[in-house]
Every structure is written in C-alpha cells, then in structure tokens.
C-alpha cells in the first residue's frame, strides 16, 4: 500500500468515524489508528507548493477517458465540486478501466489532458483547487 | 506477424533494439521510468510512454505496467533486452498469454536454463561437456555430500540451483569447511532465489570464460555465430570481451559449438542464446546458458558481419533463418570495452551530468551508447554508458585501435573507467591473450599495492 493510499483510507475512516482499521495479508499487516487529533490536516502529497492547487496524474499507462464508454456524461467537468475518492476519469488499456480518483475534497479547475490520448505514468490529467 | 515492438528496457540496449526495429521497418514503443524522461533515444521511437517512477521495481521490472503499456500503445511484441525481465519465465508466459510475441525463447526454455541443475542435466544429455559433478541437487546430510565431494576431489564449489551470473556460490578447499559452507549457502539460496537446492562441482583454479553465441528459428534450424572470451572480469562483471577467444584450437571450438547447436535443436530452443563455458587446460566445461541477447553481442557482430538483434527479431516474427552454418564466415578480431560511469580505481558509481562527450571514430571503431553531452546519468540503474567496440584484421590491429580510440574519447562531468581500460589494453598479460578470470582482480590488487607503496 502506498503512502497516498493509506492517507486516502485514513480520510475515509475519519469521515465514517471509525477509530481503528486492521488489514492482515499473507506477507504483511497494517493498522491505522485514528487518534482524533490533527487528522483533518493530513498533508496531501499532490498539493503543490501554494497549498491550494493539486494535480491529479495518471497512475498507469493507457488511454485517458473522461467518461465510461457506456455513459454519455463525463465523470467530471470544470467547476465541479468533488470529494476525496470520487472517480473523475478513467485510464483504459486493453479493455481495463483504471479509475482516476480525487485525493482530496475540492473543485475541478481544468482538464490537462485530451480524452482519447495516450497517457503515461505521471501525466497530469486534472487540476484541482483544494477545498 | 507483428509490426510494432515495445522495448522493455533502457539505455544503450534500448537504443540498439530501436535501431534494429527501424532498419526492419517496424514501429517502436519506448517505455521509460520518470528518471529516464529526458533520454535522447525516446524521441527516435514512434511512441514514448512513461510507465512508472525511477525505482526499477515499479518501472522496468513492473510486468503489469509493461503489459498495460503494450495494450495501450497497440504493440504486438515485447523485446526485453538484457537484465530486468529478460530471463523471467513468468513474464515471458504472461506476454504470450496476452497474445503478444515475446522476443526471446519460450518460458519453458527460460525455466530449464534458470534452474542450473536442470540445465546441466539437459546439456549432459545433449553431449555438451560439463564441469565434473552430479547433475542433481545435493542431499540434505553433510556426510553424503562429503562422499560426493571426495569422489570429485577438492577443491570443490557449491552453487545455488537458482543462482547464476556468479551469485550464490562458495568454494571449499577441504572437508572441514564443508558443513558450514553448506549451511550458509543453502540459507542464502533460500533467501535470494527462493530455491534452497544446491549442487556441487569441481572447482577449476585458473579457468578462462569462453562462450558460444547461438541463433535458432522456429523451423528446426540452429546456428552458432561465434565464440567470445570474457575472462576480463571484476566481481563476476565482464569488463572487456573479445572475439574470437585467442589461442584456442579452432577445431576444438567448432566441436563444442556443434554440440551447443545440437543441444538447441534437442530442447527446441528459439531465438538468440549464449552457452557459457569455463576453459582450462585445453578443455571446455559448460557452466550456464543465458537465454537472452547479451551485452557483448557486438563483438560477434563485428567478426561475423551479422546484425544479431535484427536476426533475433526476424526469428521472433516466425521467419526461417536465411543462413546456413557454412555461410557464416568469421573475419578478423573484435574487442569491446564497457565504459561505465564510475571511478576507475574505487569503482564507486559516478552519476551526474555529462558536460563533454567526445567520441572516437575511424575505420573499425563502433560506439553503442545512449549518452550525449548534457545527458544526466541517473543513479538508479546499471552504470554502463557506452560500449566501445573495435575491429581489426588481426588481434594486434584490434588492440592498437582500442588504444587509440580510448585515448581519443573524452568524457567530462562524471568519472568513467576509461583510464582503467587504457591500462588494461597496455597490460602485457592481456596483450599476450588467454589470461584467466582471476587476472583482473589480481592485477588490480598488485597495481593498487604498487601505487600505495609508491605513495608511501
């Protein structure tokens, strides 16, 4: 599990009011304990130096999609308010759709990649203004 | 048949494969890590795609990301180069399961050769000479191992079945050392290779490293392209390679090479491969087979006139070999110096920005390199930045060209091992030819002690 994913899970726990989460796998186990203090101020790694803007980038190579092929409406558009964990795009490779999620609550400022283009790991897709 | 190749590697070999694909009229996808985003060869590919961060585990070793990149870019074949996933049977299997061509042997061949005990058994059955010792894993009890060791005769060497390339082995001079050495090596093998099996062989004291390059198609044809001497090694890493191996009777090389070809046909081998041997007192002993393209393939290209990477891609496309054994004529002598970004005497890696990059040239001089002036050598990967390859009608002419070419090459901004190569090319034992695999380490120790004495 990456630091950013742990942070995401921690945010969900905070929202749901859960104090302790234990995950045990074959090779490792992870325990997240919410002490209730300062968790709301967890720094987001994707937030730029200004602290208010964040870039959401592709996590795997594929074709950037702003909507699922079966749906007519885009998953996100400029000016839209999003919550941490919301799916705001897809990266498609070989029929597999990898979700692109917002890491923090905020508002979508602009789209940084054209839907239908080939993107790689780290290609900026959306700019978000943190709430 | 594929017409778009994803190159699952970096650095000089990525560029080498890219050039071969372009000459064959194939489209290319160059994948890279974030640390290699500025590499100059990326702009030569039809598409460049970042697949992960700098860490090799998350990029060049990330099979899932490579397969997604192939899907996304429409590549129908993957060339693994050398190192990284090139000898990973599971990866080869996943590539083919996804309906793509793996430019290399079948997963089954990789698996047999990756298990050194199984490889030795397969080679014995095919009549390839092996190092004395049983072609089975060692028994659990020390007393039984001691009996086997006594039969072989000390000194012996115990090796991990899952090892190779000089890793996971221990030399034993007498029976008293056996129990401890067995326990330690078995534990290392369990941890490093997830396979605790060990095997035992006679330890050769002064061997040379001599290898045979083979090429096989999928229509029942196999060829050997030439022999190489790679005895100039430090910590099992080759520093200088040459072709042909000097001073070995040609009929003996031919006899061993013919057996390698027979072994390939027997196991249904596909693509390029290298049979590695120890050579001592006029005899060859098989140690392992590398089931991939090798760093030192250019010396064989220089003496045979063949483009081994293009041939490898052609057979992966299902084409039958266009040559017969009698068509392969080796001419002259070739030497390759591996130029590394490292301190020439302490061998500490020296990453950083290259500020000056003056390359040698002229007849019989070839450079395989991805580096350029202004290029930054990242600290995360192998330190190989260039291969300087020279060819001459005779070994003496090649040695002369190597010296001149090395003295013309100027690299600034980072340290390189060019000064070490200049010393080695001038070394009397290397010039005479036929020095053993321990020569360089001994030479380094003596010259360092000499330098220390000089300073004192």
What does this structure look like?
The complex is a heterodimer of chains A (131) and B (456). With 131 residues, chain A is mainly β. Chain A contains one helix and ten strands. In chain A, strands 3-10-8-5 form a four-stranded antiparallel sheet, with no helix packed on it. In chain A, strands 7-6-4-9 form a four-stranded antiparallel sheet, with no helix packed on it. In chain A, strand 6 and strand 7 form a beta hairpin. With 456 residues, chain B is α+β, with helices and mostly antiparallel strands. In chain B, the strands form five sheets. In chain B, strands 13-12-9-10-11-14-19-17 form an eight-stranded antiparallel sheet, sandwiched between helices. In chain B, helix 3 runs antiparallel to helix 4 and helix 11 runs antiparallel to helix 12. The mean pLDDT of chain B is 96. The interface between A and B is medium-sized, with 13 and 19 residues.
Helix content of chain A: 10-25%
Mean pLDDT across every amino acid position of chain B: 96
Sheet with most strands: strand arrangement of chain B:
13-12-9-10-11-14-19-17
Biggest sheet character of chain B: 8 strands, antiparallel
Strand order of the largest sheet of chain A: 3-10-8-5
Q: Give the overall shape of chain A, derived from the CA principal axes.
A: globular
Radius of gyration of chain A: 16 Å
Question: How many DSSP helices of chain B?
Answer: 14
Distance between the termini of chain A: 26 Å
Shape of chain B: globular
* Number of beta-strand segments of chain B: 20
Q: Beta-strand percentage of chain A? A: 35-45%
Structural class of chain B: alpha+beta
Q: What proportion strand of chain B?
A: 25-35%
**Head-to-tail CA distance between termini of chain B:** 66 Å
Structural class of chain A: mainly beta
Mean pLDDT figure of chain A: 81
């Amino acid at each position: 599990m990456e630091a950013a994913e742990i942070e995401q899970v921690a945010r969900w726990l905070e929202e749901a009011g859960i104090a302790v989460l234990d995950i045990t796998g074959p090779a490792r186990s992870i325990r997240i304990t919410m002490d209730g203090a300062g968790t709301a101020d967890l720094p987001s790694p994707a937030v730029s130096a200004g602290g208010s803007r964040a870039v959401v980038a592709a996590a795997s190579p594929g074709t950037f999609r702003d909507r699922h092929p079966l749906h007519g409406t885009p998953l996100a558009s400029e000016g839209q308010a999003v919550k941490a964990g919301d799916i705001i795009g897809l990266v498609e490779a070989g029929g597999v759709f990898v979700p692109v999620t917002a890491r923090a609550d905020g508002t979508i400022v602009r789209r940084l990649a054209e839907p239908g283009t080939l993107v790689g790991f780290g290609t900026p897709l959306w700019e978000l203004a943190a709430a | 048949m594929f017409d778009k190749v994803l190159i699952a590697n970096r650095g000089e070999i990525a560029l080498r494969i890219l050039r071969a694909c372009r000459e064959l009229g194939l489209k290319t996808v160059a994948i890279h890590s974030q640390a290699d985003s500025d590499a100059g060869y990326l702009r030569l590919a039809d598409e460049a795609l970042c697949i992960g961060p700098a860490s090799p585990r998350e990029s060049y070793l990330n099979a899932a990301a490579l397969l997604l990149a192939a899907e996304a870019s429409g590549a129908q074949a993957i060339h693994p180069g050398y190192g990284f996933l090139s000898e990973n049977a599971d990866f080869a299997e996943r590539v083919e399961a996804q309906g793509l061509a793996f430019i290399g042997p079948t997963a089954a061949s990789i698996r047999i050769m990756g298990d050194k005990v199984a490889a030795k058994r397969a080679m014995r059955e095919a009549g390839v000479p092996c190092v004395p010792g049983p072609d089975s894993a060692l028994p659990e009890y020390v007393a039984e191992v001691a009996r086997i060791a006594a039969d072989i005769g000390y000194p012996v060497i115990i090796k991990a079945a899952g090892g190779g390339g000089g890793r996971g082995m221990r030399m034993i001079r007498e029976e008293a050392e056996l129990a401890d050495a067995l326990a330690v090596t078995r534990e290392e093998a369990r941890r490093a290779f997830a396979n605790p099996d060990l095997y035992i062989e006679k330890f050769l004291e002064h061997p040379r490293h001599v290898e045979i390059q083979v090429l096989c198609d999928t229509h029942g044809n196999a060829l050997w392209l030439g022999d190489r001497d790679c005895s100039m090694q430090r910590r099992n890493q080759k520093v200088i390679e040459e072709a042909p191996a000097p001073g070995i009777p040609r009929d003996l090389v031919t006899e061993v090479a013919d057996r390698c070809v027979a072994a390939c046909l027997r196991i249904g081998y596909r693509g390029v491969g290298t049979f590695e041997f120890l050579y001592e007192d006029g005899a060859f002993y098989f140690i392992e087979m590398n089931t991939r393209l090798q760093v030192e393939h250019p010396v064989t290209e220089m003496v045979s006139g063949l483009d081994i990477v293009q041939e490898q891609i052609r057979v992966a496309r299902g084409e039958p070999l266009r040559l017969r054994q009698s068509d392969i004529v080796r001419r002259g002598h070739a030497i390759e110096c591996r130029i590394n970004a490292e301190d020439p005497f302490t061998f500490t890696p020296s990453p950083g920005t290259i500020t000056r990059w003056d390359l040698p040239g002229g007849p019989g001089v070839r450079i395989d390199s991805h580096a350029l002036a202004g290029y930054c050598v990242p600290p995360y990967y192998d330190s190989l930045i260039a291969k300087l390859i020279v060819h001459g009608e005779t070994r003496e002419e090649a040695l002369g060209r190597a010296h001149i070419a090395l003295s013309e090459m100027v690299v600034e901004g980072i340290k390189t091992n060019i000064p070490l190569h200049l010393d080695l090319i001038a070394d009397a034992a290397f010039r005479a030819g036929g020095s053993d695999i321990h020569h360089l380490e001994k030479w380094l120790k003596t010259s360092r002690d000499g330098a220390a004495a000089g300073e004192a």
